[in-house]
């Protein structure tokens, strides 16, 4: 498996903080629920480790989450959806797991259902860059 099969990643000219704000605005405009924001760099620094900036934004759209959970509760292992903002080689990137991957692990979820969610994730990422 290639990373492109698993993740959708774009590069942005925005600063790290501008990219975060942009993602949060898009999440709100699309009507998704924001669950949590994790500052991985900060958390690891508290343990004495040094990392480049990395934030993980957890989001959810209830109608899809409910539908998937009704088919198999273990799908919760892939939830909520995450959009990551990170720095790599001096560039700011925005990435999200492709929800279509879920249908490969859970046969009761058809790919068409996950394609709808993936479309939203890609729109949020593309509109944020």
Brief overview:
About 45% of the residues lie in helices and about 25% in strands. It is α+β, with helices and mostly antiparallel strands. A hairpin with a 2-residue loop joins strand 4 (about 80-90) and strand 5.
Q: What would you note in describing this structure?
A:
With 129 residues, the chain is an alpha+beta fold. 43% of the residues lie in helices and 27% in strands. The protein has a single domain (3-128), classed as TT1751-like domain (TATA-Binding Protein, 2-Layer Sandwich). The chain has a 5-stranded antiparallel beta sheet with strand order 1-5-4-3-2. Helix 2 crosses helix 6 (111-128). The longest helix has 18 residues, at 111-128. The radius of gyration is 15 Å and the shape is globular. It starts with a helix and ends with a helix.
Present the secondary structure layout.
Layout: H1 3-6, E1 7-12, H2 16-29, E2 33-39, H3 40-45, E3 54-60, H4 62-71, E4 81-88, E5 91-97, H5 102-105, H6 111-128
The secondary-structure class comes to alpha+beta
What's the tally of helices?
A: 6
Beta content comes to 25-35%
Whole-number mean pLDDT:
95
Strand arrangement in the largest pleated sheet: 1-5-4-3-2
Instruction: Encode the helix/strand succession as letters.
Output: HEHEHEHEEHH
| First-residue to last-residue Cα separation | 26 Å
Distinctive features:
TATA-Binding Protein, 5 strands, 129 residues, alpha+beta
